[in-house]
Specification:
single chain; 510 residues; alpha+beta; 8-stranded antiparallel barrel; 10 strands
Length: 510
């Protein structure tokens, strides 16, 4: 079992031997309760590449103090961290499985090893208000850090720092107002806000950490700069969303699908901007697979919301409660199954390779000559490929049926062709957004966008019709009424036919 809480603190550097500032009267602090010093002993763990510290995540096993155990800290900013606690285990040389599972994405599936041992002599002062309630806690730390890699210096690094942590439950804005008020008192005592607020980061100084070896951003005004900027945002969204999905917390599945498709829209149409390696080829394939599996989840989520109901109140009133409940239960099960498939993908090797590729593209970009051109020139090349590709796929989706092919085969082929056109059009539309408004012709941008909207409605309608046929057949075999299914199917047929006509019109303008 673990527990999680929000940690809001500021760290100050204070010279050795300097007295602590008098904080009485600052931010509601009217009393100071000084505690006896005690010892903390913590070993910090990371991968060979230092993936965790690069992701602003720390994991440690600490003894001493009131919160001995395994700790995972994820930094939201220099002062705000989400801290997760796990029980202390007897074996100091093995990371518990529960901790490894919680760090799966950040460590990229790799094993952990001890990287720094930090011992701290801590003296705590509880900062109280007039009623004796705690406002914050001040920890005056004398720190000694020894790196554990083969190139570590013989002499441990030591320093003094003071941490002020707001009391649990204090509003973040109130906490930052307190810190701002404290800055002046610490300045008078010769202290300053720490340039490096993490003990781990200080302790690792000089370590051979591949993930911390970054490369300069591409030059402004190049397509490469725009691609790197977009991937930085997408990577942050991917990491946030996958963590939520792994935890089983509620999430916007359609937003996740949009994020995944956004990655595919960079790694696919702009493939020539990245290194010509098999590793990146696999990552590009993983981006496509990620987009596919999230699209299925988003579609299933849409059917939960829309399939049991008609598009007008008059039609909706004709659908009986049993039909609605049966469809809702079936669509929820479909969504749950699609969600399970997504979570399985998040634990797969291709997904981890995709995360590695995102790290490299954001932290150590190696733009090709093709990508170092202006966005307009790169956009011309992308248009030359994507425009005919989209047009051909849309043509396949709305083309005439073969009268000699059985109806069931026709419907399956129509759905598959429409999905291919839909995915390609959405991806092309997102790819056009990456380089900005001026790179692609506005008319093409608008037409591709219209095609994407039309095909989205068509795919949803065709999937809805498929499900209605399946569950209507089940109801019929059970001697149940099927009128409600017919009402919903008629509604969806109308929407599908309307989207078909709009798709044909849009095709002629792409």
């Amino acid at each position: 079992m673990s527990d999680t809480h929000l940690e809001i603190e500021r760290t100050y550097d204070l010279p050795e031997g300097a007295a602590l500032p008098d904080l009485i009267g600052v931010g509601g602090i009217l009393q100071a309760d000084h505690q006896e010093p005690f010892e903390l002993d913590a070993t910090y763990w990371d991968t060979e590449r230092y993936d965790l510290v690069a992701a602003r995540v720390t994991v440690r096993r600490r003894t001493g103090g009131h919160d001995a155990g395994w700790h995972i800290k994820r930094a939201a900013s220099d002062t705000v961290r989400h801290e997760q606690h796990f029980p202390l285990t007897e074996d100091p040389d093995t990371v518990p499985d529960e901790v490894l599972a919680a760090l799966f994405a950040e460590r990229r599936g790799r094993g952990l090893r001890p990287v720094v041992r930090i011992t701290t002599t801590r003296t705590v002062t509880r900062l109280l208000d007039e009623d004796g309630d705690q406002v914050a806690e001040l920890a005056d730390d004398t720190v000694r850090a020894r790196r554990l890699d083969d190139e570590a210096p013989e002499t441990p690094r030591s320093w003094r720092e003071v941490e002020v942590e707001s009391a649990e439950g204090v509003d973040e804005q109130v906490a930052h107002e307190l810190f701002a008020a404290l800055d002046g008192r610490f300045a008078d005592a010769g202290g300053t806000p720490a340039a490096v607020s993490s003990k781990l980061a200080r302790g690792l100084a000089g370590a051979p950490a591949p993930r911390l070896q970054t490369a300069p951003k591409p030059d402004k005004g190049t397509a490469a700069r725009a691609l790197t900027k977009r991937l930085r945002k997408l990577r942050a969204s991917v990491l946030d969303q996958q963590a939520t999905l792994r935890a089983g917390d509620p999430t916007d599945l359609r937003e996740t699908a949009a994020t995944a498709l956004g990655v595919a829209a960079v790694f696919g149409p702009y493939r020539a901007a990245f290194p010509d390696t098999e590793t990146f080829d696999r990552a590009a394939d993983a981006a496509e697979a990620f987009a596919d599996v999230t699209a299925r989840v988003a579609l299933a989520d849409h059917l939960v919301d829309r399939l049991p109901r008609a598009s007008t109140p008059a039609q909706d009133a004709l659908v009986d409660a049993m039909t609605r409940e049966r469809l809702l239960a079936a669509m929820r099960e479909r969504r749950a199954e699609a969600l399970r498939d997504l979570v399985v993908f998040l634990h797969s090797e291709p997904f981890l390779e995709l995360l590695d590729a995102l790290d490299d593209a954001v932290e150590r970009p190696e733009p090709t000559r093709w990508a170092l051109r202006s966005p307009k020139h790169v956009a011309q090349d992308v248009s030359a490929v994507e425009k005919p590709r989209v047009r051909d796929l849309v043509q396949d989706a709305v083309g005439d049926d073969d009268p000699e092919v059985a109806r069931a085969e026709l419907e399956a082929a129509e759905l598959a062709a429409t999905e291919r056109a839909w995915t390609a059009t959405l991806r092309a539309r997102m790819a056009m957004d990456v380089l900005g408004d001026d790179a692609f012709p506005h008319a093409l941008w608008k037409r591709i966008g219209n095609a994407a909207e039309v095909l989205t409605e068509r795919v949803r309608s065709l999937h809805a019709l498929e499900q209605l046929r399946i569950h209507s057949g089940i109801a019929e075999r059970a001697d149940e009424g099927t009128f409600g299914y017919g009402v919903l199917a008629g509604d969806r047929v109308r929407l599908a036919e309307q989207s078909y006509d709009e798709a044909v019109h849009t095709l002629n303008r792409v």
